[in-house]
Specification:
Elements (H helix, E strand, L loop, with lengths): L1 H8 L5 H22 L8 H8 L1 H21 L4 H15 L6 H4 L7 H21 L6 H24 L1 H7 L4 H4 L2 H21 L7 H23 L3 H22 L2
Length: about 260
């Protein structure tokens, strides 16, 4: 996804260093999040594995935390832009920290979904543009909106699947607060904004063909809405739906070279 942003906007900076930093930071935040997540009996193989391998998760977190600090120091001159992503990532996991002040964050409606969506959009879209010191354009804003709304629509499906574990752990998400009908309307609105913002991009690399490639994942997400509500398998969520976030990136990279 970062490679797609670099490709479409011709961003010039140390790509390899940034890729390594994001890779380590992602593993760090992911393992920190799941280490703090209380075990809830489930048919999910992933949840069972996490419960049985907590020490492994802790070791991966510690190693990648050290690597993230080292790599982050190499790009410290962009500390302000990077700090925003770090804070948003922390706020996503903070409600799971066993302390009364952090647990209060679980009472914030929609926080879980919005924080996660913002982090994915920011790290893969806005942050590469910012650290490249490029002049911000309207197309940059539209691309951020496009990616945010697509990821948000996908996160809605994850929220629906996780509603029971969220309720058990006291995390307040959209699914546990709103009716199913209202959730559907938010899902539709999110995809509508995705289609509008994607189509509105113009000039440069945004030809009709490129826009079609960018729109493909949104169409697939729409088709999977009802199916995903009836099926909660790890393959569907961690391969298909997670994969749709980067699917257009694969398409644009394949068809442009």
């Amino acid at each position: 996804m970062i490679a797609q942003t670099n490709q479409l906007f011709l961003l010039s900076y140390n790509h390899s260093l940034f890729y390594a930093f994001v890779f380590c930071a992602t593993l760090c935040s992911y393992n920190f999040h799941w280490y703090l997540t209380p075990y809830v009996p489930s048919s999910s193989y992933r949840i069972a594995w996490n419960h049985q391998n907590r020490s492994t998760i802790l070791y991966i977190y510690l190693i990648t935390a050290i690597c993230s600090l080292y790599l982050g120091w190499q790009i410290r001159h962009h500390w302000m832009a990077i700090s925003l992503g770090i804070v948003a990532t922390f706020l996503y996991t903070a409600p799971k920290i066993p302390h009364k002040y952090f647990s209060l964050l679980s009472k914030i409606a929609f926080g879980k979904t919005l924080f996660l969506t913002f982090v994915w959009m920011y790290v893969t879209t806005a942050l590469p543009i910012l650290i490249s010191d490029s002049n911000w354009t309207f197309n940059h804003s539209l691309f951020c909106i496009s990616r945010f709304t697509l990821i948000y629509a996908i996160c809605i499906l994850f929220d629906y699947r996780d509603r029971e574990s969220d309720q058990a752990s006291g995390v307040k998400s959209m699914i546990t607060w709103l009716s199913e009908q209202k959730v559907l309307w938010i899902f539709i609105l999110s995809l509508l904004l995705f289609f509008i913002s994607t189509i509105a991009m113009s000039g440069g690399p945004f030809s009709v063909f490129t826009k079609i490639l960018l729109l493909v994942p949104g169409a697939i997400v729409w088709l999977l809405y009802r199916y995903s509500k009836k099926h909660s398998g790890d393959y569907l969520y961690y391969f298909v739906l997670d994969g749709l976030m980067m699917f257009s990136s694969i398409l644009t990279l394949l068809f442009r070279f």
